[in-house]
Design the sequence.
């Protein structure tokens, strides 16, 4: 297989750079810097060192025995929830902050939904002494309040965004506008494997550590690859990080789980691949939830991190090529999975990650006696308020 | 007015009647009309235009309604005045670039402005538009290199949209020496007018634009005038510009 994306940033028909002309040279500069960065042994050493001693890699692979026996399947969890700051997001922010410093950028901006990427960005900015500004939809500011406080504690400025649905998409609009205005001084530290080229590729590369470790750990444990590997898909960074170790290289069936929300009616979910069609948003051509005239549809998910109408372009490619399958898990199923993992294993997962487990629980016949690897992308501390509100505890 | 100048209005904003009336009035002063098709996520626009777009979409904006207004403008406007659409890539992509171009031709719209399609991504759109005689308008910005400007300006059709600032619609105009040089370079390579947009809001900024470019585009200030005082607001804004030239 040819390595993708191609030199224009395309994964087959998906990807590209659909952004204002003002940003083109910043993206070309980023691409050049990233090429140099990847070739630099010092940068690699510094990143490896941070991943190990600062972030806590490798993260464990855990065989969830009690949950397995209750489901009749062998469930293995890749414990990204144990990474510093509580989610896989730090893999990417550590990489990109070194890249930003390498480029001499002094100011970092980012968008966030669940606040995990915001926290991970604020964290690395504190670590490097860089100025940090986080755009966050005002609805998310309310429902992920603990993370807002954490970002402020870490010295970041959080800007609530009041437009549109007041969630992740709107935060990304504002971040892009900021970038156009402050292009010279600022690095836009995108939090998922979406956006204009080269972001989908950069974020993927920094997240592939998940799949690399997990595949080796599974091999050590089982002597073989699992039958299935699952991850939740918002923009798609934790999923692509896991899938990349397997896609086209293994018999392991890859399943990306999107947010099925309250129902499959427009506005009630954020299942871009399962229920959308190709479109162009935030710099990339990919599956998109949109109406018949191309207006982007409102989206919903109980988990703020999945509440996004688009998806990274590489997932659209994997879907069309049949290299991965994309399914949905409802709000209710995700909440049940969250509770089940808490009660069977003493692990409270993020509501995002709960979607991956929720699909396995809802479709347990399909996974009977199968070896199932699930990426536990983050922990649920930030979600306690919602979990308590939505369940009868 | 001196120069080759464009007026931006959001399509059917604040309502179809006032939109058509304002457009026909505006085309007495301006050479072309840029008709915004609202999009949910207008990342190149500031709050004034974004709010107008969201208001229309919430009220159930449909393309067919806008096309009816465009036909009335086409029929009522003096010959030689051009109409263009300004929207975002997904609106065109959703219908398909070729069907969109054919819709433009039938409506008497001669060009399309897509602020999230940079020159690098423009080829498939151009290819689909050309058979219908519809121009995709190119942009140059203060960030472009001289080499890029030469390439973009040489290939430009319709007119060349010079974004005056590093910013979005509604931001203030500032033309540093380097940007002025880039505009001059673009004019020397372009067969079509180089028109300055973003930040033109009154006599003074229009005069500055005309000093350096072939014309200007005014948008946010017009929407603000409409919001404040309906058509009389736009009238007094445009009359004040007339006194410049
Ligand atoms: C724990 C966790 N998992 C998953 C996601 C979804 O993002 P992605 O699809 O990029 O992994 C988020 C986003 O905020 C998250 O916080």
Sequence:
């Amino acid at each position: 297989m040819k390595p993708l994306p191609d030199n224009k940033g395309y994964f087959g028909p998906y990807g590209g750079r659909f952004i204002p002309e003002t940003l083109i040279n910043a993206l070309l500069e980023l691409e050049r810097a990233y090429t140099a960065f990847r070739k630099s042994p010092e940068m690699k050493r510094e990143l490896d060192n941070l991943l190990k001693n600062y972030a806590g890699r490798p993260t464990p692979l855990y065989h969830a025995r009690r949950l397995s026996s209750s489901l009749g399947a062998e469930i293995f969890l890749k414990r990204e929830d144990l990474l510093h700051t509580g989610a896989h997001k730090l893999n990417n922010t550590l990489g990109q902050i070194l890249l930003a410093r390498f480029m001499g950028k002094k100011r970092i901006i980012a968008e966030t939904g669940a606040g995990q990427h915001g926290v991970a960005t604020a964290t690395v900015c504190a670590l490097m002494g860089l100025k940090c500004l986080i755009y966050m939809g005002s609805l998310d500011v309310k429902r992920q309040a603990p993370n807002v406080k954490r970002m402020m504690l870490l010295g970041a400025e959080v800007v609530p965004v009041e437009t549109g649905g007041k969630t992740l998409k709107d935060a990304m609009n504002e971040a892009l506008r900021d970038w156009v205005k402050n292009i010279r001084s600022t690095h836009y530290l995108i939090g998922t494997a979406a956006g204009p080229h080269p972001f989908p590729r950069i974020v993927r590369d920094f997240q592939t550590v998940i799949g690399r470790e997990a595949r080796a750990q599974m091999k050590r444990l089982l002597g073989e690859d699992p039958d299935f590997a699952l991850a939740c898909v918002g923009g798609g960074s934790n999923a692509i990080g896991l899938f990349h170790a397997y896609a086209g290289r293994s018999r392991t069936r890859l399943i990306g789980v999107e947010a099925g929300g309250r129902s499959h009616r427009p506005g009630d979910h954020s299942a871009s691949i399962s229920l959308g069609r190709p479109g162009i948003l935030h710099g990339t051509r990919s599956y998109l939830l949109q109406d018949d005239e191309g207006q982007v549809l409102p989206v919903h998910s109980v988990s703020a991190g999945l509440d996004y109408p688009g998806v990274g372009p590489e997932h659209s490619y994997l879907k069309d090529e049949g290299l991965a399958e994309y399914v949905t898990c409802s709000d209710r199923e995700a909440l049940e999975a969250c509770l089940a993992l808490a009660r069977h294993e003493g692990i409270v997962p993020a509501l995002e990650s709960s979607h991956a487990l929720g699909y396995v629980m809802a479709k347990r016949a399909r996974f009977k006696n199968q070896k199932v690897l699930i990426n536990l992308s983050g922990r649920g501390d930030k979600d306690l308020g919602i979990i308590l509100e939505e369940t009868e505890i | 007015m001196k120069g080759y100048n464009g007026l931006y209005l959001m399509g059917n904003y604040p309502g179809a009647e006032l939109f058509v009336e304002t457009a026909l009035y505006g085309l007495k002063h301006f050479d072309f009309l840029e008709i915004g098709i609202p999009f949910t996520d207008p990342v190149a626009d500031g709050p004034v235009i974004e709010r107008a777009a969201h208001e229309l979409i919430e009220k159930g904006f449909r393309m067919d309604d806008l096309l009816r207004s465009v036909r009335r403008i086409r029929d009522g406007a003096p010959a030689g005045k051009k109409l263009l659409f300004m929207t975002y890539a997904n609106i065109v992509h959703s219908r398909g670039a070729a069907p969109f171009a054919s819709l433009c031709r039938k409506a008497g719209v001669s060009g399309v402005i897509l602020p999230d399609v940079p020159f690098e991504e423009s080829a498939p759109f151009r290819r689909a538009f050309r058979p219908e005689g519809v121009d995709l308008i190119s942009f140059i910005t203060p960030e472009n290199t001289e080499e890029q400007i030469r390439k973009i300006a040489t290939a430009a059709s319709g007119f060349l949209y010079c974004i005056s600032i590093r910013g979005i619609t509604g931001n203030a105009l500032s033309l540093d020496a380097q940007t002025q040089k880039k505009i001059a370079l673009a004019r020397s390579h372009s067969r079509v007018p180089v028109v300055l947009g973003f930040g033109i809001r009154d006599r003074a900024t229009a005069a500055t634009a005309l000093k350096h470019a072939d014309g200007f585009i005014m948008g946010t200030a017009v929407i603000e005038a409409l919001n404040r005082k309906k058509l009389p607001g736009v009238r007094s804004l445009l009359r004040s510009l007339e006194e410049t030239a």
Chain A touches chain B through 37 residues (CB under 8 Å).
